[in-house]
Amino acid sequence: MKVTVVGAGAVGASCAEYIAIKDFASEVVILDIKEGYAEGKAMDLMQTASLNGFDTKITGSTNDYSKTADSHIAVITSGIPRKPGMTREELIGINAGIVKTVSSSLLEHSPNVIIIVVSNPMDTMTYLVHKTTGLPKNRIIGMGGALDSARFKYRLAEAMEAPISDIDGMVIGGHSDKGMVPLTSHATRNSIRVSEFLSDERLEQVAADTKVGGATLTGLLGTSAWYAPGAAVSALVQAIACDQKKMFPCSTMLEGEYGLNDICIGVPVILGKNGIEKIVDIPLSDAEKAKMQESAEGVTKTNGLLEL
Ligand SMILES: NC(=O)C1=CN([C@@H]2O[C@H](COP(=O)(O)OP(=O)(O)OC[C@H]3O[C@@H](n4cnc5c(N)ncnc54)[C@H](O)[C@@H]3O)[C@@H](O)[C@H]2O)C=CC1
Ligand SMILES: O=C([O-])CC(=O)C(=O)O
């Protein structure tokens, strides 16, 4: 199983590291446009192999896509991250051009590849890859919901003073400060609804903190986060590579599901060897439906800025 990670920056390197440590891929190619950068990251990571006990071969490439040939999965993390005070949507001007070029270069050398889009604004970048590559929808996956759900679980565990392994929960909707829809009424601690443990006010605070999870970290770090994003990508890559049939919220092209059409937005999907093998269309409460609709309007507005 060969995996390419485009962008050797913070998220790309973190994701390559987690993939290697889990040791399920035979090869990870990291590619970056900056001369020598991907080669350097690959060499540094390879020098952790004997310490961390993995056999995945990691190689680097300065913009030479022939090295990515016949990849099964490719992750696009190339592009600029936001700085404190910015929204993800503000990145569209630079990142759209990068994501378009990168996806077409990947396909030249790996016509059967499954693409995971990470660059922001992620839902719109996922839509862009659909519109410009024409790939079947199961092979284009936007990563956002897996990360947002991990942050939701972190906030729920913190509020309940519970171990994170006790918590289950999911965030759907757009991957944006305003557009996320944490499914609070479905979240549980060992199958008991979290509302049994937390007041409505505390749950609202958890949801609010979850939605600005990325912005909070950007404020603290001066650039956006990478450990949890890298871990979230590696979990999606593993689900596909190992045909796990695991469910994650991912940005996918909707054709009527959740009452939405011609939009990529986060909903639960089953991931296996074919990429997105099923969209799970769960019933939402009226309040959740309204939030999902509002979120979709935000994503559609950003999509309108694309030059297609
Ligand atoms: N969807 C999500 O949940 C998340 C998305 N992101 C997004 O991921 C992207 C990357 O973030 P970081 O890794 O922190 O940024 P970074 O600046 O550390 O790394 C980006 C890398 O992309 C490279 N690059 C730029 N243009 C390229 C091209 N045409 N071809 C190949 N490489 C190119 C740069 O040289 C740089 O090394 C940002 O857009 C960020 O907003 C970040 C975290 C989570
Ligand atoms: O916040 C950002 O800009 C990066 C990102 O998408 C995240 O960490 O959720």
TrEMBL record:
PANTHER family: L-2-HYDROXYCARBOXYLATE DEHYDROGENASE (NAD(P)(+)), L-LACTATE DEHYDROGENASE. It catalyses: (S)-malate + NAD(+) = oxaloacetate + NADH + H(+). Residues 1-142 form the Lactate/malate dehydrogenase N-terminal domain. Catalyzes the reversible oxidation of malate to oxaloacetate. It comes from Maribacter litoralis. Pfam families: Ldh_1_C, Ldh_1_N. Substrate binds at R82, R88, N120, R151. CDD domains: LDH-like_MDH. NAD(+) binds at G7, A8, G9, A10, V11, G12, D32, N95, V118, S119, N120. The active site is at H175 (proton acceptor). Belongs to the LDH/MDH superfamily. MDH type 3 family. Keywords: NAD, Oxidoreductase, Tricarboxylic acid cycle. This is Malate dehydrogenase. Residues 147-299 form the Lactate/malate dehydrogenase C-terminal domain. One of its GO terms (biological process) is tricarboxylic acid cycle. The keyword Membrane does not apply. HAMAP family: Malate_dehydrog_3.
